[in-house]
Design a protein that fits this description.
A hairpin with a 5-residue loop joins strand 8 and strand 9. It is built from 11 helices and 15 strands. The N and C termini lie far apart (about 35 Å). The longest helix is centred in the C-terminal third of the chain and has 15 residues.
């Protein structure tokens, strides 16, 4: 029997979070528990407390790691959908409207009974972002709500590492995506995620995960006792049977598959404003090339184009006004 041809290139899987972005001085972070540069989950009360301390209201846009990647992939021309749970409030309705306008199929979103998830990104003058997230409706997504039907007709599933905090849910997603015949990528998302779930991750890498995305903090967290350089760590991850993509921000990236390895040159910038969403954009560009069956080096170069443009703007998404130029560079 001939296998059906997929009608959707990419399904993102994760938390559909509305992003709140605020520029703050370093001193502001003394009001927030946890390390600078990471992501910590908070409840709605704590979120409200932090937002109330801001001098000006934050900007608002759609967010979520896999959601950002999916949004950008749709803008690049891929056929996309998303599996995740929105809330029952006006913020959820706005979220779905934005995704629909971007060309993302919204039929596989789940609907919750509480408010939509939101994330506050506090951007310091060094362009580093420190995130605090209230998952709200997104956190109520359960393993019993995931089925093979969520991935039917999909070529590739891209899963955010934050989902791994709920390992039963993540395993349900992985099992359903595999059963539907998808290739799979996992973005490690945060060094906190890796620190909390390292053993589980290593148990999954040899079981049908095709691509692993990591930044410099995440790959160090994955191999905390290995002092090797990023090339060596990329090779080490690739030896587990995955395509390893290790992003190093302004220093470029490494991409490896088996014995094949490429150093991806950075796009040099002098006007970095906000790193929020850059890794998600990089993943979108890479996956666009991967699904078009481009060489790995070209996949990485497209990722760099999207990631470098993202950091030139406040918030996790490239503004519409800048998108046409990015599209020409990425797909030309």
């Amino acid at each position: 029997m001939t296998k059906p041809v997929p009608t959707i290139d990419l399904a993102g899987v994760g938390s559909p979070i509305m992003d709140l972005t605020a520029q703050v001085p370093d001193a502001f972070l003394s009001n927030v528990a946890g390390d600078k540069g990471g992501m910590v989950l908070v409840d709605d009360v704590e979120m409200g407390r932090i937002v109330s301390l801001l001098d000006t209201p934050p900007s608002v846009t759609t967010g979520g790691s896999a959601a950002n990647a999916t949004f950008n992939a749709a803008r690049l021309g891929l056929k996309t959908t998303f599996v995740g749970k929105v809330g029952n409030d006006a913020m959820a309705a706005t979220y779905l409207e934005y995704f629909g306008k971007a060309g993302v199929d919204t039929s596989r979103f789940k609907r919750g009974t509480v408010n939509n998830a939101r994330c506050l990104a506090m951007v310091t003058p060094d362009a580093q972002r420190t995130m605090r997230t209230s998952l709200a409706a997104a956190m109520t997504l359960g393993p019993d709500e995931i089925s093979v039907a969520d991935f039917r007709g999909v070529k590739h599933a891209h899963i955010e590492g934050y989902l791994v905090f709920n390992q039963d849910l993540c395993e349900a997603v992985l099992n359903a995506a595999r059963a539907a015949g998808c290739t799979i990528s996992l973005d490690l998302s945060s060094f906190e995620v890796v620190n909390a779930t390292r053993s589980w991750m290593f148990g999954q890498f040899g079981r049908g995960i095709d691509i692993v995305f990591a930044n410099e903090d995440e790959i160090r967290a994955l191999y905390p006792s290995d002092p090797g350089d990023y090339e060596a760590l990329t090779r080490k991850l690739a030896s587990l049977g995955v395509i390893a993509a290790v992003k190093m921000g302004r220093d470029g990236s490494w991409v490896a598959k088996g014995d094949e390895i490429h150093r991806i040159a950075p796009v040099v910038l002098s006007d970095v404003i906000d790193t929020n969403g850059a890794g998600d954009a990089w993943a979108a560009g890479f996956l666009y090339g991967y699904l078009k069956e481009f060489p790995l080096s070209k996949c990485g170069a497209i990722g760099s184009i999207l990631g470098s443009e993202t950091v030139r703007h406040l918030g996790p998404l490239i503004p519409t006004s800048a998108w046409d130029g990015v599209l020409r560079r990425a797909t030309g």
